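To illustrate this point, we now present one chain and its tokenised fold:
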Amino acid sequence: MRAWFGRGPASGAAAPEGSPGKRLYAIGDVHGCFAELQALLAAIERDHRQRAAKPCHIVFLGDLVDRGPQSRDVVALLRASPPGFAQMHVIKGNHEEMMVRSLSGEPELIPDWLKHGGRTCAISYGVDPSILNDPDLHRLEHTLLSHIPEADIRFLAASVDTVRFGDYCLVHAGVRPGVPLEAQTGRDLRWIRQEFLSSDTPHEAYIVHGHTISEPVAFRPNRVGIDTGAYQSGILTALRIEGAERELLAAGTPVAASVG
């Protein structure tokens, strides 16, 4: 699924612009960092209310779950109490894909999901950590489904692949260079890394993405990545797009580096 707002990229435009008359905040990979998410949403609301009144959109770039400690709380907040001042859109990340597929009839994927951050997600739902080592995948599937609400799985499954906002295209991981946006595969949108990151090829739109940690955030000619690794850095980042303006917002407490 793809969401669209306003016009596409203007031919020959010197710099990308958002959809006319609208404001958008893109939020990087949350990864179960509930306190940082609450703080960032509060900062976004303050920023929005200090500006001229106009329709507002908040786009999550995917990976709401896994790795961090409070995936359940993150999903519950966005499912039951989405921001009241903006229209919310959730892009499906590779971690949502792993979780949803694992819990929707593909139990053979559960070990890989747990290995790549799903373990902390399952524990946040109250699953006993010792049970997660159960070699019987069907029994493990039953245990997980008895703890993780079906409504949460449906919420994550319903997330979109991309959001277009004027000259911008927002995705989770990136796009395959040289392939039209409408022809991009879900796998590339959620999983691509080096082929996209190393490419200077202009795309049909300016790409805003997460998936790969960028510290600090650096704007490239054809893309910007705003995943600042909240689960390990303590900082969750958002990007405001409004007309030709772009501004970064962040919330959280930096994690002190160990010395030794």
The beta strands are 2-5, 23-27, 56-60, 87-90, 162-165, 168-170, 206-213, 223-227, 235-242, 245-252. The chain has a mean pLDDT of 93. The radius of gyration is 18 Å.
